[in-house]
Amino acid sequence: MTSQLARVITIERFILDQEELIPEATGELSNLLYDIALAAKIINSHVRMAGLADIIGSAGLINVQGEVVQKLDEFANATMKHALLRTGRVCLIGSEEDVDPVPTPPGQAAGKYVVLYDPLDGSSNIDVNVSIGTIFSVHKRLSPDGGAGVLADCLQSGRDQVAAGYVLYGSSTMMVYTTGQGVHGFTYDPSIGEFLLSHPNITTPALGKYYSVNESYFPRWDARVQSLMKCYKGLDCGYEPKTSRYIGSLVADFHRNLIAGGVFCYPADSKSPLGKLRLLYECAPLAMLCEQAGGYASDGHGPILDIVPTELHQRSPLFVGSRDDVRLAEEMLAGPRP
Ligand code: P6P
């Protein structure tokens, strides 16, 4: 039994081991990651109950006031805020669910970190029981220590993130994160309420087997994007054909491609000139994770991580995943219009 226990590494233990590798670490980032892991456990418990809410509620088995019937993405947003804004580690959060950044409450100590997140991406998939996810990005504040943070603290390039990660509420619940020392995945064991190390040092193949895109937008794409997708299918350019896999839930599509190799594309199109996905709390954190795993993330012309944002909710086209597959996208989009 002892040997088995010795092999079980909780996310808390792993974060602490990682912290010990950095002499100047104060432990604040470690505690911030614990806070996010706790929020993930709470969100997970409600996501797992979502399908039963009406049944449980109508049976009067639990009080359906407040949380259970509250929209899950609003609940996830409230849970992340509660986990982050009262700890003294964070001075500001930016959420997909809030128009403006949310500072620490008056009288509450403001810390040195800023957290940007999508609390429950793909929440429209909940009703059909498709995997969904939470995505987060962590920066150090630029404004002077002490008071609450300001918008400028959010508008930093992805290259300056100190941590990034996601929680995937899938067939199992996983938390995957990086602090710049590789990408590590943890699977939730509900029997003990812990995230356990299951995927240390994730790396993604240079050439992937999958391509992920919403093919129904083909008529809206620039001709060069149309040509790129034909290449991924193995048509017209001698490229090894890929298998199409598109769940329509960003974290689920990204995670499959990260592990198995592949490229996820959300190009600009005639209706969405900057695509649909948000730079600060979707594209940038996934770009950091992907590059840490040996992949690459581009807006079609250059690294996602080099884009300096000007707005909290700005969008960006996204090509992310296996390095060579994303580089092909840049080559094809740089070429002359066919
Ligand atoms: P489309 C879900 O609504 C989401 O934000 C991402 O999770 C997903 O990758 C994308 O939108 C799907 O968008 O236009 O293909 O439905």
Task: Describe this protein's structure.
The chain is α+β, with helices and mostly antiparallel strands and 338 residues long. It is 30% helix and 20% strand. The chain has helices at residues 2-7, 11-19, 28-49, 53-58, 72-84, 223-232, 250-260, 279-292, 323-334; strands at 90-95, 102-103, 113-121, 132-140, 163-169, 173-178, 183-189, 194-199, 210-212, 243-244, 262-266, 296-298, 318-321. The strands form two sheets. It has an eight-stranded mixed beta sheet with strand order 2-1-3-4-5-6-7-8, with helices on both faces. It is globular and about 60 Å long. It starts with a helix and ends with a helix. The model is unreliable at 57-70 (pLDDT under 50). Bound molecules: 6-O-phosphono-alpha-D-fructofuranose.
**Annotation field: number of helices:** 9
Helix/strand order, N-terminal first: HHHHHEEEEEEEEEHEHEHEEH
What is the CA-based Rg, rounded?
20 Å
Which distinct ligands sit in these coordinates?
6-O-phosphono-alpha-D-fructofuranose
Largest sheet: 8 strands, mixed
Structural class, from secondary structure content?
alpha+beta
What is the CATH architecture descriptor of the largest domain?
2-Layer Sandwich
Q: State the separation between the terminal residues, measured CA to CA.
A: 64 Å
Largest sheet: spatial strand order:
2-1-3-4-5-6-7-8
Question: Total strand count, please?
Answer: 13
Q: Mean pLDDT, nearest integer?
A: 91
**% residues in beta strands:** 15-25%
> Tell me, what is the CATH class of the largest domain?
Alpha Beta
